[in-house]
Write a structure and sequence with these properties.
Blueprint (H helix, E strand, L loop, with lengths): L1 H18 L2 E4 L10 H13 L4 E4 L3 E2 L10 H11 L3 E5 L1 E2 L3 H7 L2 H26 L5 E9 L6 H15 L6 E6 L6 H13 L2 E6 L9 H9 L6 E5 L1 E3 L9 E3 L12 E4 L8 H9 L9
Parallel strand pairs: 1-2, 1-12, 2-4, 3-5, 4-6, 6-7, 7-8, 8-9, 9-12
Antiparallel strand pairs: 10-11
Helix pairs in contact: 2-3, 5-6, 7-8
């Protein structure tokens, strides 16, 4: 029995370490109030938990650039890099993104996406020129979903635009997607797989935190994903209702092994060693950009 328990604990430790090998961090303006010593401890603890890659969701959110090249975010990420964390830097996010894609028809959506990709390309060039951080990849914070991409022509257009955008970058492009239950799992898997074969690292959010879909449905989507598509395990549980400002509490991410899929966790502020970020945010609640 003792030997079996030891084996179980070792296996559980392996799953947890693997699950947190890549961690998403979503910068908010309020995070600027954390000091350098706090950031150093956060990044040290993140590395100790087995993380090797930090995926930063964005480096510009509307007009907010978090202090720019000499600001708090850039300085914090330099500390993260010094702790051995590889960086995948997010580009520019439009705060009105979800509202805009609700309003646009297919032609309008294509034009809007093209404009947003242009802004993200400009942000990437600014980061290379001014921030001068070593990066392993670039993350596009415009999430894909099967509600707004239900029409096949929209998916074709988005794939063409993303492939063209990825070709202009000097490191791999990363993008995330989630399922609203609109596309059949097989069609969704084929779509995301085609993006992967275009040289894009696609991350599929498991939806456990938002709870929009029943677990059995989510599992059906997972089983239809090709191995190249990564799985993002949500380490929170949403407690806000539809129409309310997003609010969530920390929760352990699904510990089921990801199998052949790369794994990541969303997000750092909901992990035990990142709790100082969440506590600081709640002390300043209502004074920041909306987080997910």
């Amino acid at each position: 029995m003792a030997r079996w328990m030891l084996f179980f604990c070792l296996m559980l430790g392996t799953v947890v370490a693997r699950a947190d090998e890549r961690v998403f961090y979503q910068p908010l303006n309020v995070d600027a109030s954390l000091n350098q010593a706090q950031w150093q401890k956060i990044w040290q603890d993140t590395a100790r938990q087995g993380a090797r890659t930090l995926i930063v969701q964005w480096t510009a959110y509307g007009d907010a650039d978090f202090g720019g090249a000499n600001g708090w975010l850039a300085n914090s990420l330099k500390i993260a890099q010094q702790q051995g964390l590889q960086l995948v830097l997010g580009l520019k996010m439009d705060p009105a993104y979800y509202q805009r894609i609700d309003e646009l028809d297919t032609a309008g959506l294509g034009k809007y996406w093209q404009a947003q990709l242009g802004q993200s390309l400009a942000q990437q060039q600014k980061l290379r020129k001014d921030w001068k951080l070593p990066v392993q990849g670039w993350y596009l914070p415009l999430e894909l979903d099967d509600f707004h991409s239900l029409a096949a022509d929209r998916r074709v257009t988005l794939q063409r635009q993303l492939k063209d955008f990825a070709g202009k970058l000097d490191a791999p492009l990363h993008v995330s997607a989630f399922s609203a239950g609109k596309l059949a799992p097989s069609v969704n898997g084929q779509w995301l797989g085609e993006l992967s074969t275009a040289g894009i690292q696609v991350w599929w959010q498991d939806g456990a935190g938002t709870g929009r879909l029943p677990a059995v449905v989510r599992n059906g989507y997972v089983s239809a994903l090709p191995c190249s598509v990564g799985i993002v395990r949500e380490a929170f549980r949403q407690v806000s209702r539809e129409g309310q400002a997003f609010h969530a509490e920390p929760a352990a991410p699904d510990a089921t092994p990801t199998g052949c899929h790369p794994g990541a966790v969303f997000s750092l502020r909901y992990r035990p060693w990142g709790r100082v970020i969440l506590d600081n945010q709640r002390q300043h609640q209502g004074s920041d950009v909306q987080n997910h």
